[in-house]
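dumping the sequnces here before i forget
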Amino acid sequence: MEVVNMLEIENLEVGYGTIKALHGVSLRVNQGSIVTLIGANGAGKSTTLRAISGLIKARGGKVRYDGEDITNLPPHAIVARGLCHVPEGRMVFANLTVEENLRMGAYLRKDKPGVAADMEFGYEMFPRLRERRHQAAGTMSGGEQQMLAIARAIMSKPRCLMLDEPSLGIAPILVRSIFEQIVAINKARGITILLVEQNANLALAVSHHGYVLETGKVLFDDTSAALRTNPQVRAAYLGG
Amino acid sequence: MQGQRYEPFAHHFPLSQFLQQLLNGLFLGSIYALIALGYTMVYGVLRFINFAHGDVFMLGAFTGLYLHKLLGPMMAMMPWPVAMLVILLLAMIICAAAGILIEFLAYRPLRDKPRLNVLITAIGVSLLLEYTAQLVFGATQQPFPVIIPKGNIGGLGGLTVTITQVIVLVTAVVLMIALRFIVMKTKLGMAMRALSLNPTASALMGVNNSVVISFTFGLGSALAAAGGILYASLYPSIEPFMGVLPGLKAFVAAVLGGIGNIPGAALGGLIIGVTETLVAGYSDTLGIPSGYRDGVAFVILILILLFKPSGLLGKAEREKV
Ligand SMILES: Nc1ncnc2c1ncn2[C@@H]1O[C@H](COP(=O)(O)OP(=O)(O)O)[C@@H](O)[C@H]1O
Ligand SMILES: [Mg+2]
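..and the predicted 3d for all of it:
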């Protein structure tokens, strides 16, 4: 299979006020793969995703998606291109029902039958969501909200999905089922995935390639298998 | 105040008088409700109080007046309900455009600045609209044209209800139902709700937040314009500062209902209208001079702020970190 760069980030620089959060981050995500971005709290993982999806302005560098320069386009224009970001903290619409949240995910779509089919796909992926479809999203547990956030992102029919810490603050049993579904989404639907995680063990187990970020710089860039056996990575991120 | 009769032997609270005051309050309150909806919707999407909103209400009344002058010969040929509808809809469209323009020129450039900046700007816009109106329309009271025929509805026992009052209430209710439909059933309405819950998430769903904010200003301003025309139909004398008091009262109504809560704004408007009318109607019994009616809303405001700052239907909003 020909290797195509779906997402290509070159020398990305981002700051908050006078604080610089990213000092020239470069990474590539091949089409059809799962790539993970790991690193300690505050390393700049979320900032990287926010800059890619247009939530914050890049001060330098380039973001290329599907061969097109999308640096600093507004978020809605980036979603429209099939690049979807599931933010840290899930950000479901608390007062809207599960079903309304899913409809919001399909905001830019006009193909009603396709939207209905994807909603069905989401309910099959996470049956709890179907049970709770008329319930306000804010009343669900953290794990259920994470499921909803992922299903909602699928509703936009993305070709590339960026997930920010889907395991954060979620019961271990639910983490497993969520990660199984992330792998299934990648395999069954061919959706390319950029996965940000603090749980490096888990992330390297499901991904093909990994980047280790430290204080706004890429420290390691290797296949996930190689990173798992890398002594330095093991010592610092995998608990020895 | 209409329909106040003095019944020398019913010293205390004759039921018919009470019902009459309740009705009068309902008519006035439905107008406050229309204005309050604009405050609350804009607060929902931008988290700020658009203090120029009451002046859009004034602008609506003047737009109605000038449309009536402009379309005079045509108006005369139309049955009055058609004439009323034409004036109402045109004024709503014109004021919606004005509201969108105000947001675009005055508030949008301050979108990422501290909220105090835009709040102060809103007060500036309010003064600008009032004094520009004074310059353009003149400072004196102007009669608002009588579009709805004068007369009472019969068969209500001792109650006096004018055709105008009925039209005001029906129009306000229809507009509120239409708004509810837009907010609950249309795509833009859902985007509005999503944006007010989490603007980052709505942007990530592909919502162009700026478009939704413009839409919200348009919608709120259209309702305020309708309120202005209905108010001018009830009290047919208009001037450039006519929006100040109803605007402030409607703001209190929005806070009373729970700022950001749409049904709350409607409810708050009705409560303020009814309370104000009752206080005025029973001023002798209560020992409050009827001129104090305008203070009622502010007493209510102080009470809400003391006892239930989140309003009647609002949820206590926890500050997100
Ligand atoms: N909204 C913000 N304002 C100021 N600084 C921020 C903000 N968000 C993140 N930062 C800083 O940017 C750096 C990277 O943060 P972040 O991207 O959230 O890290 P990670 O997701 O890897 O934990 C940190 O030093 C953090 O303190
Ligand atoms: Mg983070």
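Chain A has one domain: 5-237.
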